[in-house]
Amino acid sequence: MKPSAADLKNLAVFRAVAEHHGYPGAQTALNMSQSAISFHIKALEERVGFQICRRGRQGFELTDRGRVVYDRAKALLAQVEDFDSEMGELRRTATGTLRLGLVDNMISDRHLRMDEVVREFLRKNHRARLDIRVNSPDELALDIANGELQLGILPEMSQMEGLQYRRIYTELHSLYCADRHPLFQVPDTELTIDEIARHTFVVRPYANLRELQQFPDARVGAHASNMEAQALFILTGYFIGTMPDHFAKQWVKERRMRALLAETVGIQSPFCVVTRSERRPSLIARNFIQELVANSWAQLHDDHDSKA
Question: What pTM was estimated for this model as a whole?
């Protein structure tokens, strides 16, 4: 099957339907009616010669062959977007779509004003589009490696072969408990690492080695897929856990959380710009990195000036 322009449109609609697990979400994302979406899905099924998805009382699901089509569609559409960006680079114009990966809750970090980075990037690159995917560091690294994402801003953890990591800033983490937890009222002067280690931890699977580096014998009672889930576990009062200080700040201000021995068990988590190592980032990606570095530099100097 040699894809035509109509095929690419049908594949784009199918990708949206698959990623939104049905027609309703895709209608909003595509600003398209259900009948129009149905038309594109039917046209794609006629083109490939088999059923790619099912809709019924049990909900929406892809067929086995539909999952293969979805995987190939993602790869093909990413290549088309990369081609558009590369043609813009030849014209010395940043065009096309930058597919960016971020971990959750970066928006609250004042040391990396992501809203300002995105604002300046869009202002200076008005012919470019920006798609942002939020996921775990491991999943984002895989997406960068297979070309689904062009760029990611990820914590510097276990580095994946084939990717290039450029450190840009460091995020500060502390160990937190909630006001319902027995340790909340214990002064730091009376706390010890051994005492903390007797309590139950909640960890993120992708970060537990770093979170528990000073508590090798800790009892893990819960796993959280992201920071919001981890905060929820901590707020129950049954668990303690490590979170970025900027994310926990809202609950600390409300006196619903406190850091435990921050100077002793706090963690520095370096963050990196991650790209594929075998190819130079596109112009659109380089422009975003430029804004990111400029913003990080400005924030660093603002912090130094405020401490002077």
Answer: 0.69
